[in-house]
């Protein structure tokens, strides 16, 4: 589990570094769109496996309100952090 967590942290760091490199030169919102598009595409690829779809569906039906509120809050905080990190630093 620790190896997976470290790999995930490395991937997020590399993604942030690449985003920051291009955000300094290019339009922030266009880059944000393509960043979210890539994340959505990766999610669709993960959902191609029936096991993942079933697990996601069961979790979503059991806790729909809580998952939605936590996800919205997380995305707003994440977007705010991206804006601050790329615009001010």
Alpha-beta classification: mainly alpha
Order of helices and strands: HHHH
Strand content: under 5%
Biggest sheet architecture = none
Specify Rg, calculated over alpha carbons.
16 Å
Flag low-confidence runs: none
- Binned, the helix content reads over 70%
Question: Gap between N and C termini, in Å?
Answer: 33 Å
Protein architecture, described:
This protein is mainly alpha-helical and 89 residues long. It has one domain. Helices cover 92% and strands 0% of the residues. It is built from 4 helices and no strands. The mean pLDDT is 86.
Keywords:
membrane; 89 residues; single chain; transmembrane helix; mainly alpha; transmembrane
Write the layout of secondary structure elements.
Layout: H1 2-25, H2 28-47, H3 50-62, H4 64-88
Overview in brief:
The chain has 89 residues and is an all-alpha fold. It has 4 helices and no strands. Keywords: Membrane, Transmembrane, Transmembrane helix.
């Amino acid at each position: 589990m620790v190896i997976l967590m470290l790999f995930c942290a490395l991937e997020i760091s590399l993604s942030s570094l690449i985003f920051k490199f291009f955000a300094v030169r290019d339009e922030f919102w266009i880059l944000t769109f393509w960043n979210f598009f890539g994340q959505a595409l990766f999610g669709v690829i993960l959902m191609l496996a029936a096991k993942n779809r079933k697990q996601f569906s069961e979790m979503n039906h059991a806790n729909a309100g809580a998952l939605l509120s936590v996800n919205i809050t997380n995305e707003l905080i994440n977007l705010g952090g991206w804006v601050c990190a790329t615009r001010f630093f």
